[in-house]
Amino acid sequence: ASAFDAVPMAPTDPLFGLMAAYKADTFDKKVDLGVGAYRDDNAKPWILPVVKKADEINRNDPSLNHEYLPIAGLASLTSAAAKLVLGGDSSAIADKRVVSFQTISGTGAVHLGALFLAKFYPRPENQSVYVSNPTWANHHQIFQNVGLPIAQYPYFAKDICGLDWPGLTASLESAAPRSIILLHACAHNPTGVDPTQEQWKAIAEIMKRRQLFPFFDTAYQGFASGDLAKDAWAIQYFIQEGFELCIAQSFAKNFGLYGQRAGCFHFVAAPGAHAEDVAKRVSSQLAILTRSEISNPPIYGARIASTVLNDPALFKEWEADLCTMSGRIVAMRKALFDKLVELKTPGTWDHITNQIGMFSFTGLSEPQVQKLREEFHIYMTKNGRISMAGLNTRNVEYVASAFDQVVR
Ligand code: PMP
């Protein structure tokens, strides 16, 4: 007998199951709209040209070795990462109230933040972490694993395939003070629906009045709009408004460094006389949490991102690469929309072009998604989310015509 006879079988991760089914499909026109990674117009992974250059620079640098990084990671990366997300002229950085730790990509950053909040954030009545409904599925698992209770705020309105503004604001108005609110900084996953700047201002107003704590997850800066500052606007606005907050930052999508696991966690202390002291104490605890879990973060992806972020010429090239990726995605949104309009596909499809970032909530139902997979070999998650990166000039017409047939 095993001591683990009672371990229940966990369900397989639905996304990885989808990937396996797609791989096993031998149909030549099969389409993968599940993939959460950028693909070029040939449906192939794309190494950013600037990343190739940075790779070359690092591989040929005789001063580099494979020693351990410090617990907090590569300092040249974490400081540049803070400037990237907070703005180079950030008063929070100048006031020394920002603490930055390199993490195992965005997932590790959300986890480190969750662990820190579970241990140190005062929640006198066992206040919850509010995540959007729906959200990136891993948010649920990560916060559950550190023992934080989860609640949901309405986010997506099915009738308009857009933001459920009344639901979202009512939920924030009724959340207990000191609740933690997980916010997607831009390119909301899985819906592709972001608040407008006016709506962000209203969200900040409610959150300040009701003493809610913001935790921003930013996995798509620059990848969403092609404009790094625009995609960080909400975070920078909240900091201007004097919030104390956490940020989980991923370099997976915007550098195409998925498997290198490059990311950062930032804690920004509230402005005030003791801010620098709070930051120091928080930093000392983050060091213990990091040490106990990973000792120190991985070095190679961090070097590549750091090389690009700290060299003005390479940074400019990176911005151009970001425009290549975001531009192709915007073009695919338009191509899909135009084709559906041309086919007079029943329903409205404006949300395809209104939504932003890698993902789009199409509004397709579960039976329609099933039919697309069985009859057309088009793979997507059963909630009707598609990855725009899976579309290209060769398959977009096929996909539009399949959508047309399943909704009729
Ligand atoms: N947060 C969100 C909302 C995401 O979509 C992702 C990527 N799927 C992540 C975090 C983190 O991904 P990674 O760990 O690969 O950086």
Defining key terms:
seven-stranded mixed beta sheet; 47% helix; PyrdxlP-dep_Trfase_major; binds 4'-deoxy-4'-aminopyridoxal-5'-phosphate; alpha/beta; 17 helices; two-stranded parallel sheet; 408 residues; globular; 13 strands
Report on this model:
With 408 residues, the chain is α/β, with parallel strands linked by helices. Helices cover 47% and strands 13% of the residues. It has 17 helices and 13 strands. Strand 7, helix 8 (197-209) and strand 8 form a beta-alpha-beta unit. The longest helix is centred in the C-terminal third of the chain and has 31 residues, at 312-342. It is globular, with a radius of gyration of 22 Å. The structure holds 4'-deoxy-4'-aminopyridoxal-5'-phosphate. Residues 36, 105-107, 136, 184, 189, 217, 219, 250, 252, 258, 263 line the site of 4'-deoxy-4'-aminopyridoxal-5'-phosphate.
Q: How is the secondary structure organized here?
A:
Layout: H1 14-24, E1 31-32, H2 49-59, H3 75-86, H4 91-94, E2 98-104, H5 105-120, E3 129-133, H6 137-145, E4 150-154, E5 156-157, E6 162-163, H7 165-174, E7 180-184, H8 197-209, E8 213-218, H9 228-231, H10 233-240, E9 245-250, H11 252-255, E10 262-268, H12 275-293, H13 300-309, H14 312-342, H15 350-354, E11 359-361, H16 366-376, E12 378-379, E13 385-387, H17 396-407
Parallel strand pairs: 1-12, 3-4, 3-7, 7-8, 8-9
Antiparallel strand pairs: 2-10, 5-6, 9-10, 11-13
Helix pairs in contact: 2-13, 2-14, 3-13, 5-6, 7-8, 8-10, 14-17, 16-17
The protein binds 4'-deoxy-4'-aminopyridoxal-5'-phosphate.
GO molecular function: L-aspartate:2-oxoglutarate aminotransferase activity; pyridoxal phosphate binding
Family: Belongs to the class-I pyridoxal-phosphate-dependent aminotransferase family.
Protein name: Aspartate aminotransferase
